[in-house]
Design a protein that fits this description.
Layout (H helix, E strand, L loop, with lengths): L1 H16 L18 E6 L5 H9 L16 E7 L6 E4 L6 E2 L2 H16 L10 E7 L5 E5 L15 H13 L4 E8 L8 H9 L6 E6 L11 H4 L10 E3 L5 H5 L4 H14 L12 H41 L7 H24 L6 H16 L9 H12 L9 H12 L3 H25 L1 H4 L2 H35 L3 H5 L21 H41 L2 H7 L4 H7 L4 H30 L1
Parallel strand pairs: 1-6, 1-7, 2-5, 7-8, 8-9
Antiparallel strand pairs: 2-6, 3-4, 3-5
Amino acid sequence: MENLISLVNKLQRACTALGDHGEESALPTLWDSLPAIAVVGGQSSGKSSVLESVVGKDFLPRGSGIVTRRPLVLQLHRIDGDREYAEFMHLPRKRFTDFSLVRKEIADETDRETGRSKQISSVPIHLSIYSPYVVNLTLIDLPGLTKVAVEGQPDSIVQDIENMVRSFIEKPNCIILAVSPANQDLATSDAIKISREVDPKGERTFGVLTKIDLMDKGTDAVDILEGRSYRLQQPWVGVVNRSQQDINKNVDMIAARRREHEYFSTTPEYKHLAHRMGSEHLAKMLSKHLESVIKSRIPGLQSLITKTIAELETELNRLGKPIATDAGGKLYTIMEICRMFDGIYKEHLDGVRPGGEKIYRVFDNQFPVAIKRLQFDKQLAMENVRKLIMEADGYQPHLIAPEQGYRRLIESCLVSIRGPAEAAVDAVHAILKELVHKAINETHELKQFPTLRVEVGNAAFESLDRMRDESKKNTLKLVDMECSYLTVDFFRKLPQDVEKGGNPSHSIFDRYNDSYLRRIGTTVLAYVNMVCSTLRNSIPKSIVYCQVREAKRSLLDHFFTELGAREIKQLSKLLDEDPAVMERRTNLAKRLELYRSAQAEIDAVAWSK
């Protein structure tokens, strides 16, 4: 069982070291889940004397006004031998054997956190005391409740202390040790009043009655100690502390405990309660109760820790890795993020992710439909055919076939294919740009750095613009090639009999009749359709080669080249992470370290059992 209290002690120390004080924050808190005993009482209630009696040492600061201004997590460790010493968590490896120096260090450490302004702080001081004369126990000494501010303190100090005390004791895992003086009306007890607010059924509250020996003659505290005046689920314990005169005379704790035992044993009103009165009984009772509470909470604590570790890891993964400080590390980080983006972009093109199929739709639907919609009626209208044929003949009519007329008619038709070809290039360009947007949004690491996100996007768009311009040149060249050199075999296969035309015996004027010109138009249209069929296959190949293939191969090549010449300040600007995100990541990493440490500690105790 002693291992259980030691376990909670370790976890509490880890919480404080890693910034978990149980305060309201955006981070999960382990502190609030740990069972603890908080000591609550008004000023001059004898709270400090109770703690010193439990420990058996004078070690707490004393004085008028508010002396305890920070929570003191007091961890008692029972050890073998006869040595007694104390250690502070903020002074590792330094042992205090003189407990007057412990008192001074508590006061000094309080001032380091709060200054000498008599303000309060919720950041706890951790003090461990090792002695053969103590039981394994952890207590949290909270500032004494007060009704008025003393000189040098703000008027809000009264409410501030009450809020701090309430923030500790309202937690369902907190055991409340409510210290009240017997020589005052219990109805006015600050400790009982605030305990009742957070624990109305008295299930978590232990009542401690001090100054029983200072009650008026003819009165006693039996009704309170037996639970008749104010009933709690847990028993009341009466203690007799050293008087101020005893403290001034340096009466030791052993003598004080002996006198306390004699008081309850010899006083008729309390003789029947003597076996469960006194600071020694209080310490043993609290230790036993704390052990049982810890044992009952362990399964729930393990479940909470496992769940929280998973949540913290998920959020840390979402926030990304911390930024390197050196130029090489920054450049590597940028390059890795760019490669991730580039990989996602390729997955869109290759069909691993959606989007790339839109390019095929351009080739299979949009481009062929655009070619089919081309109207060659104007170019091949009778009057236009006659005009072009006659213009091509010049002053000397053609003898056999109007070759120059054919060329002009074919060229005038093929030039119109440039429009659909350019539109196909632009359509694929728009799709490639759309996929850049998608890949940027799906590259989680780019969300971490807004400036890098913008620069990567701009660099990708600039590359795509260059690829589009090159693709447009090559694609239009394919159209121009068809215009510059006709496929001779097509014309060689045409019939040349009298009925089909080409008989030179006809007059010049017969050669320009409607039937003859109509036949020329039909031949030109057949040739143009053949060229359209060819371009329907070759233009997509050109577009893929110049745009899609290049986008997969070298989308960010220019950006990478330019990156290598940048100085560390310029690289730092690219990695301009939000300071709030950086702070959040640091805090999450600390909290994750805490929970993993807690998990290891709890597992070790569980296995040992």
